[in-house]
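Field reference: sequence -> structure
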Amino acid sequence: MTHPIVPYREIKTMYRETGFTKAGHVCPPHECGFVTECWHAHEWDGGPHSGHGYNHGMKEFLADSSELLALTQEIFTALDAQSCILTPAYLRQWFAHWRDMRRFSLYHQADAFLRAHRVPRTSDAPEGIFLRFPEDREAAALFLRCGFTYLGQAVLFFPQKRWIVSGTHHMGVCFYTPGKDAALESCALRLAENYPNCRAGTFHNT
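Structure field:
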């Protein structure tokens, strides 16, 4: 199944209207306002092949990431986040540049998804892919997992919620917001209590 493609000019307009630009340019999410983060207690650092941090193999990596992604999906559902745009709008490239990235199955899965939508992996004006929830949660999870492993650089942009959601290499999911989002913070803290290995908190980006 293919999804609607969103032109870069429309994404940039939505970024500006939701407070994610500075001086007319799409800015790094970590420079915008606040971040509510959910993270796993196991301190992974780039996944099971990095040789750093918590490193107990692919089976445990997939189990831990599935737990964190289940929490993330619960937040989407609780706050009625029905759709987003999958985009690399800030960095303008979908993947990091690693010489051996082709040996990772996550890379091939994400690359196949982009190829199916005829979206270039690098562009000065990268198109986005429109996703709906819950039917596209697996596609969203795939690109968040790519963020957990240093491979991916795409984010989930929720214009109606004023969120940019990305996976971090320390197995965290960051909800970046231009201002403090009390409903998001409260929801993340409450739902994280149902996941013994997950934590949540809100921080001001300075």
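Note: The helical segments are 8-17, 57-78, 105-116, 137-148, 182-192.
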